[in-house]
Amino acid sequence: MPNLRDIQHRVVTAFQRRVGNPLLSTLPGQTLLETTGRVSGQPRTTPIGGRRVGREFWLVSEFGERSQYVRNIKADNRVRLRLHGRWHTGTAHLLPEDDPRARLAALPRANSAAVRLVGTDLLTVRIDLDD
């Protein structure tokens, strides 16, 4: 029998996949993460929130290693990131030793609140930007 975290994960990801992500992806100012699909090899784009600090971009995945984009990063950590309408290439690093709740305090407030509200397995991700 599924536990509450499994049900929450299914409900939130179904909403994100069918409603939230398609809508957010069309907004010109939305930050987008492009990974390579681990099975298909095709580009997969996900709207994300986070903050650029110098040549790094920091975010927290609400479902950790259950997130599809995190699973794609584990297979191939070369990514593209659209910031303010401009695409950047970089290398993503999963940081399970980082405190994701403390990290959220340093990231944009609205996105951090949403991640805290729906997240079940928080995981910090750092993207080292090439440019």
From TrEMBL:
Domain of life of the source: Bacteria
Pfam families on file: F420H2_quin_red
Which stretch is the leader sequence?
none
Note the InterPro entries from the entry.
F420H2_quin_Rdtase, Split_barrel_FMN-bd
An annotated Gene Ontology molecular function: oxidoreductase activity
Question: What protein am I looking at?
Answer: Nitroreductase family deazaflavin-dependent oxidoreductase
Q: Which organism is it from?
A: Nocardia gamkensis
